[in-house]
Specification:
Elements (H helix, E strand, L loop, with lengths): L2 E7 L3 E8 L5 E8 L21 E2 L1 H19 L6 E8 L4 E4 L20 E2 L7 H14 L16 H11 L1 H6 L2 E4 H10 L4 E2 H7 L11 H7 L6 H5 L4 E2 L4 E4 L2 H7 L6 E3 L2 E2 H8 L7 E6 L3 E6 L11 E4 L7 E7 L3 H10 L3 H10 L3 H10 L9 E3 L17 E3 L7 H25 L6 E5 L1 H5 L1 H11 L3 E4 L4 H14 L9 H8 L2 E6 L3 H22 L5 H20 L2
Parallel strand pairs: 1-5, 5-13, 9-10, 14-20, 20-21
Antiparallel strand pairs: 1-2, 2-3, 4-7, 6-8, 11-12, 14-15, 15-17, 16-17, 18-19, 21-22
Helix pairs in contact: 2-3, 10-17, 11-14, 13-14, 14-16, 17-18
Length: about 550
């Protein structure tokens, strides 16, 4: 028997999956939460953080990986000698500054109380003004690479975050000998070898196999400290997906309970790695990975510029083909917000009596409503807009509330808003010559919320298929572990062959309801009008309100400090 292990690093936890690569059976799964979670208010020592910060402690990644892999191996009861490969996926762009030996800066005595020394999580949006300046400069200089990213680089991506560090904390910038994706950093720890994933570099760090990174002249114009950022702080070979980054070190083999030298795959992104796990190997299938946020992954036949997408990278998802990424930076977080912030006391009692969660209760109540019955329309921007506006300074909106509005009305309206956001993305692809022929969903929402999936089918007027595994990212990571091991070791020569054998889609299909489609077509037109009014410059009220809030928080923090 031959097995691989995939480790999926999410926003709040890591999951390890043991995969039988002969039968495709998921032998065992184990998860561990990050001890520090997301630090968005203060550092562990109490140092306050400003608005839109989202940091993490890199030690959490190693501790959760050790615990999850160890538990998965124990549950599987397999012989670790039968594990032929290991793969990981990670949220991105999640980046950190380190020393040249890989030691995170935040582990150093002098930097433990400095926010810029920590991991900046993918949803760290405090670099928005730096992204705006980066985009302005790129347009002024006529930088050709900007078109590959839909005409704008997000504040979530690598160089906006590095620029923020150089601008706000030049002492941290100078002390940092590397800036690296957290996924690449974990691979570095596992193998003792510094490498970078072509997927993460391509989508998140403005790199391409043909052109490399942007020029030194561009970075020098952006900030004088950054002129040699690539040469000085972005070292290590850039390896394609499926390559072996190295063998497991003796130290980490002991910690994980695996054999020394086990092949470790190049790091992948959580969304991208899920495509082959669903068995998708051709053009036109869009995979929606639906969780805290949603990533929309699509493979095309030819590379075309699409405004507002996150990027297009040849070989970034499947070998040889252009892989497109778009996304919504807030989806599941919306639903969680409603259950935590807007539920009256009697709903808590009802949920307790039924033995279900508040979100399950809200879903039951919202499912009794017909499309349009809530009288509400929302913009799904509680955490900004990733695609197609690429603007993290946008905020949410709910229109139509009255004294009769209930929590379930708002809950359903926000689910609908996220579906409208996906429709906006799909239509943008299609209008720019990139067809979307089929929609497949994966992730926690696809697995747990049938109401949401039916609403998506009705809003899109397309059937929604489901990925075959509830742990699709970890499964995909394990599949890449089998590719890193190679055919000679009992794995696969490429990920397409692995996907053809091990990819899975469920039999369950959500089919559009015609009478619902008709109503949602009308509501979507209203959504599109609001989307353009507040998102394309018609009304900048959201940004003015956000600026006033930031000023007030800064004053409050200043008064609170000694």
């Amino acid at each position: 028997m031959r097995y691989t292990i995939g480790v999926d690093f999410g926003t709040l936890s890591a999951r390890a999956l043991v995969l039988d690569i002969e039968s495709g059976r998921e032998v065992a799964v184990a998860a561990r939460d990050y001890a520090h979670g997301v630090m968005d208010r203060e550092l562990p020592g109490g140092i306050p953080l400003g608005p839109d910060w989202a940091l993490q402690q890199p030690a959490d990644y190693l501790q959760t990986m050790e615990g999850a892999v160890g538990e998965a191996l124990r549950l599987s009861a397999i012989d670790p000698q039968q594990v032929i490969g290991l793969g990981i996926d990670f949220t991105a762009c999640t980046m950190l500054p380190t020393l040249s030996d890989g030691t995170p800066l935040c582990w150093q005595e002098g930097w433990r109380d400095h926010p810029h020394a920590y991991v900046k999580l993918w949803k760290h949006h405090a670099a928005s003004r730096h992204a705006a300046r980066l985009n302005q400069l790129a347009r002024e200089r006529g930088e050709g690479w900007l078109a590959r990213y839909g005409g704008a680089i997000s504040s979530e991506w690598m160089f906006a975050k590095i620029y923020q560090i150089a601008d706000e904390a030049p002492e941290v910038y100078r002390a940092a000998e590397r800036f690296i994706e957290a996924g690449d950093w974990v691979i570095w720890q596992l193998t003792g070898r510094e490498t970078r994933s072509a997927c993460q570099a391509g989508y998140k760090a403005i790199w391409s196999a043909d052109e490399g990174y942007p020029s030194e002249a561009f970075f020098a114009a952006l900030h004088p400290l950054m002129e040699h950022v690539i040469q000085d702080k972005m070292c290590g070979p850039i390896l394609p997906l499926g390559d072996c980054a190295g063998g497991l070190t003796a130290a980490f083999a002991k910690k994980l309970g695996l054999r020394e030298g086990t092949p470790v795959a190049v790091s992948n992104v959580d969304a991208h790695v899920t495509v082959p796990a669903a068995g998708l190997t051709g053009a036109g299938d869009m995979l929606m990975i639906m969780g805290t946020s949603t990533c929309h992954m699509l493979v095309g036949e030819e590379e075309k510029p699409v405004p507002g997408i996150c990027g297009v990278v040849r070989g970034g998802i499947l070998p040889g083909l252009p892989g497109y990424e778009a996304g919504q930076s807030c989806v599941g977080d919306h639903f969680d917000w409603v259950s935590k912030s807007l539920v009256p006391p009697q709903y808590h009692h009802q949920a307790q009596e039924k033995g279900i969660t508040l979100q399950q209760l809200l879903t039951e109540k919202a499912a009794r409503l017909l499309p349009g019955q809530s009288g509400l329309l929302a913009l799904d921007w509680w955490n900004g807009n990733r695609s197609v506006l690429v603007d993290v300074d946008l905020t949410g909106l709910i229109l139509g509330m009255t004294l009769a509005t209930k929590a379930e009305d708002i809950y359903r309206a926000i689910i609908e808003a996220t579906a409208y956001g996906t429709r906006m993305i799909v239509e943008t692809f299609q209008q720019n010559g990139v067809p979307v022929k089929r929609l497949v969903a994966a992730g926690g929402i696809a697995e747990k919320n049938a109401l949401a999936m039916q609403i998506y089918a009705d809003v899109m007027n397309m059937p929604i298929y489901l990925a075959g595994s509830p742990q699709a990212p970890a499964r995909g990571a394990a599949m890449f572990g089998a590719v890193a091991a190679g055919q000679a070791a009992g794995g696969f020569s490429d990920i397409v062959l692995a996907a053809e054998k091990l990819g899975r889609i469920k039999e369950k299909i959500y089919t559009p309801v015609p009478e619902h489609v008709a109503v949602y077509d009308k509501l979507y037109r209203e959504y599109a009008a609001l989307h353009d009014t507040f998102g394309r410059g018609g009304n900048h009220c959201m940004k003015r309100l956000k600026a006033l809030r930031a000023q007030a928080i800064d004053r409050a923090n200043g008064m609170a400090q000694p």
